[in-house]
Design goal:
Number of helices: 17
Strand order of the largest sheet: 1-4
Low-confidence stretches: none
Shape: globular
Number of domains: 1
Length: 414
């Protein structure tokens, strides 16, 4: 009986983590056939993590609140790009420009999030398709704004912002000029991987000890954190391991911002509002009977997610140094949604750990797939097509598994 229970539990674990396991296997196979060195892959991976992790973490709150993947974060990215345009127009460069853009994004993305939340409340049960369609609708308005209103009805004077010989904003906005904010965050403190590892491990140890002193965590949890950090630092002393990360440089402030968002998500879940998110996500009917204003809670979740997505887009574009005015935001929702699902999250449950793991695996496959496709089939484009197919496929698989789980749960009740 005990062995049978173990088998059932193992089958349940494999089923629940099927997507993650599949991606781990694909990443290993891709890395083996890509012909790329591990140190180069790690260099590329950390570059992608620094600019993409924040926006993936922005998806957690709506999932916890039972609204599924917030594909409308595309609209938050649009709000960020509107803010970036005006910062360049005003000539506020560097870190002040980046912070000004963040500040401007809050009311713009917050207002958009409020409208999105109200509309999605009219579409309960269909929030994901609603958010996807909203993104396409908003993109049309965005194109109108940038092609006709900016540079025509609203003049722009900054050099390089307007299409030469025409009206409207240029196809590419360069953030490396004296008006831009390229590397405004990434360039503040940049160290080699080893130094960055020691800095973050020291911070985690201090945090664990503070939590223990304040009696917010048990002695066992704090000691486990300390032991894990010590173990990681010891493993890094192995020459082979150190060589793997020899090309990596860590933008300390950027990763600190990502850590702060993780702490914010955890802290928020312990508040009354966080408990309301969970209650609404588990059952809107029960939450409503308990006196929770379900519609209000859902709107707040979308508003926070949209603002965070805007900030994540600003982190992304300052890392890239430029952005395609009419296309940089289009795939934000799709790629972030696929990434969080790859980490083991579902459309009903998500954690910081799942978001970060998914970001790692998703972008690792993006790095190795083109080279693996070229070496296996003689054409790098095959790898490109494969990774786009995977993006859509992961979301489709997650939806199918969610529907299947619902049918199984209904059968058990009957």
């Amino acid at each position: 009986m005990h062995d049978l229970r173990k088998k059932i539990n193992l089958a349940e674990v494999l089923r629940a983590n099927a997507v993650t396991i599949m991606f781990v296997i694909l990443c290993i196979v891709g890395l083996a056939f890509s012909g790329q060195t591990v140190s180069y892959v790690m260099y590329e991976l950390f570059s992608r993590l620094s600019r993409n992790a924040f926006i993936v973490l922005a998806l957690i709150l709506p999932i916890v609140a039972g609204m599924g993947i917030n594909f409308a974060i595309t609209i938050g990215a649009m709000a960020a790009q509107i803010s970036a345009l005006w910062v360049i127009e005003w000539g506020i460069s560097g870190l002040p420009g980046f912070l000004t853009a963040m500040l401007m994004t809050v009311p713009i993305a917050g207002f958009f999030g409020y409208l999105i939340g109200n509309l999605l409340n009219k579409m309960k049960g269909q929030e994901m398709i609603g958010g996807l369609i909203l993104g396409y609708f908003a993109n049309g308005l965005y194109q109108l704004l940038f092609l006709f209103i900016f540079g025509n009805l609203i003049p722009l004077k900054a050099p390089g912002l307007v299409i030469k010989g025409s009206t409207g904003v240029a196809n590419t906005i360069d953030l490396s000029t004296d008006r831009g904010f390229k590397y405004a965050l990434d360039g503040l403190v940049r160290v080699d991987f080893g130094t960055g590892l020691y800095i973050f491990c020291a911070l985690f140890v201090v945090y664990a000890l503070v939590q223990l002193v304040l009696k917010r965590s048990s002695k066992k949890q704090s000691l486990t954190t300390v032991a894990v950090c010590a173990g990681v630092c010891l493993v890094y002393q192995i020459p082979f391991v150190a060589q793997m990360f020899s090309m990596v440089t860590v933008p300390v402030v950027t990763f600190l911002v990502v850590v702060l968002l993780c702490l914010f998500n955890n802290a928020l879940m312990k508040t009354r509002l966080g408990q309301q998110f969970r209650a609404v996500g588990q059952s809107r009917t029960v939450a409503n009977v308990s006196g929770i204003n379900v519609d209000r809670v859902r709107i707040i979740a979308i508003m926070i997610s949209t603002v965070l997505a805007g900030w994540g887009q600003l982190i992304f574009v300052q890392n890239m140094g430029s952005f395609q005015t009419y296309g940089a935001h289009e795939q934000v929702g799709l790629y972030a949604g696929a990434a969080i699902l790859v980490g083991g999250a579902s459309i009903r449950k998500a954690t910081n750990g799942q978001a970060l793991l998914g970001c790692i695996l998703f972008h690792l496959l993006f790095i190795v797939a083109p080279s693996a496709g070229k070496n296996l089939f003689g054409d790098a484009a095959i790898g490109e097509y494969f990774r786009v197919f995977i993006s859509y496929g992961v979301i489709a698989l997650a939806l199918v598994m969610h529907a299947w789980s619902g049918v199984q749960a209904k059968k058990k009740k009957d």
